Amino acid sequence: MLSRPAVSVSASSSAATDASPSLFPLNTSQFSCQANSKVLRFLGNKKLPSLNCRTIGWRRSSSQPKSGSMESFTARATAQPLKNANELIDSVETFIFDCDGVIWKGDKLIDGVPETLDMLRSRGKRLVFVTNNSTKSRKQYGKKFETLGLNVSEEEIFASSFAAAAYLKSINFPKDKKVYVIGEDGILKELELAGFQYLGGPEDGGKKIELKPGFLMEHDKDVGAVVVGFDRYFNYYKVQYGTLCIRENPGCLFIATNRDAVTHLTDAQEWAGGGSMVGALCGSTQREPQVVGKPSTFMMDYLANKFGILKSQICMVGDRLDTDILFGQNGGCKTLLALSGVTSLSMLQNPNNSIQPDFYTNKISDFLTLKAAAV
Ligand SMILES: [Mg+2]
């Protein structure tokens, strides 16, 4: 039996189970339904068909766990080494793979990945690739897969840049409003594909503030959402512009592609991640964002809805505990930690670590050998 029950429940969840139909059934255990007057004013006080508590529940109350933090309410049994890959493969319909540290490391494919993906496809499994990296669009990621010799279609790729645009679509974000972007090209490309107007992004990378007496920065009053992702050209101009939009434009949304503390720009050290840019805006606005990337359940809900799959029929495979594994657990999926990325066995087994996947293995190509051994 692969699905191991949680061993104890330490806190109650306030998860709402609204039975009304919704295209994007967001989990309101993470985000409260504060359809405040500003949001309704921004949406013109219209009762939109898909506008319900869940889809506009972007604002988290202070009593709820921080998105991006360890928000699982259950203490899980200790992770087990994967011994019978066949059993795991047979028990699910879909594998969701994180990319960096699972499929590739930087620009290098991890050993055995093509054969493993081929084997899973030959057994009729749906494969989905999810990344918190918002610097590229789905199309740009498609090229990376192609360059690495992997046959993956754009429809199988879900980056947090895409999630930001999908989220705005899910709440019927008005097309006459604009999105201010703190982030890189991937977010702009996805917003464009979704038909949204935007400003900011790389073109604000070189802008400076000239602080002379009486200087006042103007901002576009039609900005209805600020999307913040990883941005190598982050600067004070962007912080101030985004802050003005969020603080002064009625109902302006604050959306984060992810809150990752660190990222891996080079293999020599860890670098400040998207969470550092998001944190700056949290500090200046005193607001918490709607996170659309991992470990928020938005993308999982979106995927389950798009493909019509039960979350219990999904196995999330990743190399990070606080994003990938938590993402799978928050979504109610099976989870497998690959030790081919940032998490070592000693980190997993550290007594201070409370995030325990169902299984762990060295790399996903273990599916091939463990499969053979199990037959
Ligand atoms: Mg990773």
From TrEMBL:
Database matches in InterPro entries: HAD-like_sf, HAD-SF_hydro_IIA, HAD_sf, PGP_euk
Gene3D superfamilies named in the record: HAD superfamily/HAD-like
Record organism: Rubroshorea leprosula
EC number from the UniProt entry: 3.1.3.18
Function: Photorespiratory enzyme that dephosphorylates the 2-phosphoglycolate produced by the RuBisCO oxygenation reaction.
Keyword Chloroplast: yes
Family affiliation: Belongs to the HAD-like hydrolase superfamily. CbbY/CbbZ/Gph/YieH family.
Coiled coil: none
A GO MF term: phosphoglycolate phosphatase activity
Subcellular location(s) of the protein: Plastid, Chloroplast
The protein's name in its UniProt record: phosphoglycolate phosphatase
GO CC terms in record: chloroplast
Enzyme category, top tier: hydrolase
